[in-house]
Amino acid sequence: MRAVLVGVWGRDISKEFSKESIKELKGLVEAVGGKTLGYILQKRNFPDQKYYIGQGKAQEIREIVRGTKADTVVFDDFLTPAQISNLEKVINAKVLDRTDLVLEIFSRRAKTKEAKLQVELAKLMHELPRLHGKGKALSRLGGGLGTRGPGEQETEVRKRLIKKRIHRIKKELEEIKKRRREQRKRRERSEKGERIVRVAIVGYTNAGKSTLMNALTKKDTYVANMLFATLDTKTSARVIYPDFKLLFTDTVGFIRKLPPELIESFKATLEEVQEADIILHVVDVSDEGWLDYVSTVNEVLKELGAEEKPIIYALNKADKLVETENEMNHLPHPAFIEGDAVLISAEKRWGLGKLLDKIVEVAKREEVYI
Ligand SMILES: Nc1nc2c(ncn2[C@@H]2O[C@H](COP(=O)(O)OP(=O)(O)OP(=O)(O)O)[C@@H](O)[C@H]2O)c(=O)[nH]1
Ligand SMILES: [Mg+2]
């Protein structure tokens, strides 16, 4: 994929924010093995119904596509099926939106049966409202583009098949969920005599959640410098004090403008977040946009109904800001973070003792243990 990216700013979105978002979109393009040739930002207070951007701008993009030999134009937002199809006509290249990319990444990364089912469900939910007689919505990244859409009758058949499949997947997921719940109960019951604190590690994608999980529990969860390396939640344990046991869970990363279908699908996986006693929110403080990431993650936590739980911020990758652990310890507490926060470097294993102390302190203070 040779892509040109398009973003919009104006009204509620600052130019800086929009640029940050485009930078991330570039990461998403790379995650599906594509290359970004350049990007275009347009100032617009409201999206155009027909083209999302202005029609003049769309024609300009067509020239850029021709000049750079791009084959794809990626919009940094959700587009309607009509907008996509109108844009493709004007621009004369494949048009994708953020949802298409994220769904594609998820479907490539899903490893376990559950994750695979969840991604399939999200894809089908995404596809269903987009099926029209003349639609060409199927596997938009799969090369089948430009082919003529199915007829009215085929569409109806396809719709019925999708609904049936959705029903089936939901049932299967429900069974997996039930089994997991029972396993969890058994696991927790066997920990008699100790107070257990369930800690869910959450955060923006690539923040270092799995690295921290490994550092804390000496397990080896997959770590990689790419978006959405982890798609399955895994629990691991570590004993801290004789009468305290911390159970850590690694989770799938969050991202801004997460397709709603995915939130829906991954809610089940994120059930561990809903059941956690403490949320450990990992933040990459070496990234300029980290405060925006924090609010994005907190919004998703709200979606999951977990915003009332005690949150501890693990301000990670401090090794990119200072040279030594000692220097890190002399950094001021970031005033804009209200509440419990600890500076760490998961990779260098700095500050992990303090972080564990903090978890126990919060658990005692909030009396959140079983
Ligand atoms: N310099 C530095 N790099 C880190 C640190 N922690 C993690 N990383 C790097 O950040 C990248 C992402 O780490 P992961 O642990 O996979 O991040 P994650 O939050 O689990 O990411 P997803 O599963 O993709 O959401 C990897 O390249 C890590 O090596 C740290 O403390 N310092
Ligand atoms: Mg991970």
UniProtKB/TrEMBL annotation:
Domain Hflx-type G: from-to ranges: 197-367
Record's subcellular location: Cytoplasm
Function noted in UniProt: GTPase that associates with the 50S ribosomal subunit and may have a role during protein synthesis or ribosome biogenesis.
InterPro entries from the UniProt entry: G_HFLX_dom, GTP-bd, GTP-bd_M, GTPase_HflX, GTPase_HflX_N, GTPase_HflX_N_sf, P-loop_NTPase
Binding site for Mg(2+): 210, 230
Binding site for GTP: 203-210, 228-232, 250-253, 316-319
Record organism: Aquifex aeolicus (strain VF5)
Stated name of the protein: GTPase HflX
Coiled coil: 159-193
